[in-house]
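A further point concerns the way the authors explain their paired sequence and structure data. Since the whole study asks how a given chain folds, the encoding of that fold should be made plain. A single example would do more here than another paragraph of explanation. An entry of this sort, consisting of the sequence and the corresponding C-alpha cells, reads as follows:

_____
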Amino acid sequence: MRRTKEEAEQTRRRIMQAALRTFHRRGIARTTLEQVARAARVTRGAIYWHFSGKQALLRAIREDVSLPLVDQSDFTLLDAAAAEPLERIDRFLRDLLDAVAKDEHTRLVFAVMSFRCEYVGELASELEEYVRKNRRLCNALTRVYRQAQRQGAGLNGLRPRLAALDTLVFLAGLLRLWLLDEHGQLGMRRAARLLIAAHVKGRRAAARPDKRAASALRKTARQGA
C-alpha cells in the first residue's frame, strides 16, 4: 500500500511539473489537459484522478510554492527576537528575491502567475486568493512597521499601514521587472539588492511627504482597510 501511495504522489508531482512547463510555454488559457497529459506521459484520466480540472491543477502548483513562502515570511517578519523590525523587512525582501532567483521551479510559478494567467472565468477565484494573501502580508508588514515606529524609525513620514502598502507596491514591481529582465537589458538582476537596501533605508528617514499627497494616501488606506 505504501508503494502505491508513493507512486501516486510521484505521478501527481509529474503532472504538476508538466503542467507548469506547459503553462509557461503556452499560457494557461491556451493549454489543454490533453497537452498536459502528453507532456506528463499520462492519460487524461490520470489527471482527473488527482485534480478536478485546470483550476485545481493551477491552485496546487501555486500553493506548492506560495504556502511555504507565506509561512517563512510570517516567521521572518513576526519573530521579534530575531532582529530589529526594519532588518526583518530587509531580510524578508531578500529571502523572497533569493527564492525566485535560485530555484527554477519557484521562478516558473511566479512567471506563470504573473504573465501567463488571465484571471477571468474559472480562474477568477485565483485572483481573489491573490488579493487575500496580499492583504495578509500587508497586515504583517503593518505590524512590523508599527514596531519600527515605536523604536524611532521615521518611516519617511508615512503611517505604518501606508508604509506597508508602499512595500507591497515596491515588491510587486521588483519581482515583475526581475522576471521580465531575463536577458539583463534593464539591469534589474544586478540592481535588485541595492534597490531593496535603498527601500528599507528610506523607511528610517523622518522626512514628511506633501500634505495633500499624504492626506490622499491616508484616505485610500482607510478605504482599503
Residues 55-209 form a domain with the Tetracycline Repressor; domain 2 fold (CATH 1.10.357.10).
